[in-house]
Design brief:
single chain; about 230 residues; alpha/beta; 7-stranded parallel β-sheet; 7 strands; about 45% helix
C-alpha cells in the first residue's frame, strides 16, 4: 500500500468518529483555504499582537504563517488565540548564529512567493496592490522598528496602508488584518486561490486527527484492521 493510499484509508476511518456536521464544516473551510497569500512576522515581541495576527489569518483562510525569531522568541496568548493556532501551520525560523530573516525570505522565494515588505513609506498603496497569478508573502516587522533593513534590501517591493491622521503607523495586528482583508477580497473575486487536491488531503487528515479523541489509540485500532 502506498503512503497516499494509507492516508486516504486512515482519513476515511477517522471520519467515522466525526459527525456529518463536523465533516461538512471541515470541507467548507478546506475549500476556502489558501497558500496564494502568506505572511511573515519578524521579531514580534508582544504575545497579544502575535496571537491576534494568527487568529486573523485563520479567520481569513491563510494556512501558513512564517515566524522570524532573530532577537525575540515568539510567544502566544491562548486567550486571544481562541484555538485558531490549531488550524494553521506556524513555520518558525529561530536558529542561533543564522540570519533567520534571510533564511525565511529564501524559503519563501523557493516556494514561488513575491516578497512584499510592509512599511509606512511603501512604494505601493494598499488599494492599488495588484492581485494575480503570483503568490504573495507580506512581511510585517517589529512593533517599534518595523521591518529590518534585511527585509527592505531583499524584498521585491514595499507596501503602505494609506493614513489620514497624525499617527504614521497602526498596531501590527490591525495592519495585518487590513492588508489581508483587502488582498483576500481581491483574490476571492479573482479566483484561483484554493489549495490543490493533494494539499486538501493532507490538511483533511491533519484536522481529522485534531478532532478525534484519543486519536493515537484510534490509529492503532485502524492499523490492526489492515491486512
Amino acid at each position: 500500500m502506498t503512503v497516499d493510499a494509507y492516508h486516504i484509508r486512515l482519513t476515511n476511518y477517522l471520519g467515522t468518529y466525526l459527525t456529518d456536521q463536523r465533516k461538512e464544516i471541515i470541507e467548507k473551510v478546506l475549500n476556502q483555504r489558501t497558500r496564494k497569500v502568506t505572511i511573515a512576522l519578524e521579531d514580534i515581541h508582544q504575545p497579544q499582537n502575535a496571537s491576534a495576527t494568527v487568529r486573523t489569518c485563520e479567520c481569513l483562510g491563510i494556512q501558513d504563517i512564517h515566524i522570524i525569531e532573530n532577537t525575540t522568541p515568539y510567544q502566544l496568548n491562548k486567550k486571544v488565540l481562541k484555538g485558531s493556532y490549531k488550524w494553521v501551520n506556524l513555520i518558525r525560523y529561530k536558529k542561533k548564529g543564522v540570519n533567520n530573516t534571510l533564511a525565511c525570505i529564501e524559503a519563501l522565494r523557493k516556494q514561488g512567493y513575491q516578497i512584499i515588505a510592509t512599511d509606512p513609506a511603501g512604494e505601493i498603496s494598499l488599494p492599488d496592490f495588484p492581485v494575480g497569478e503570483r503568490k504573495v508573502a507580506l512581511v510585517f516587522g517589529n512593533e517599534d522598528r518595523g521591518v529590518s533593513q534585511t527585509v527592505l534590501k531583499n524584498c521585491d517591493t514595499t507596501l503602505r496602508i494609506p493614513m489620514s491622521g497624525f499617527t504614521e503607523s497602526m498596531n501590527i495586528s490591525v495592519s495585518v488584518a487590513i492588508c489581508l482583508y483587502q488582498i483576500m477580497v481581491k483574490l476571492w473575486k479573482y479566483g484561483n486561490y484554493q489549495l490543490t487536491e493533494e494539499e486538501k488531503r493532507e490538511l483533511r487528515l491533519q484536522w481529522y486527527r485534531k478532532c478525534v479523541r484519543n486519536v493515537n489509540l484510534v490509529e492503532k485500532r485502524f492499523i490492526s484492521t489492515l491486512p
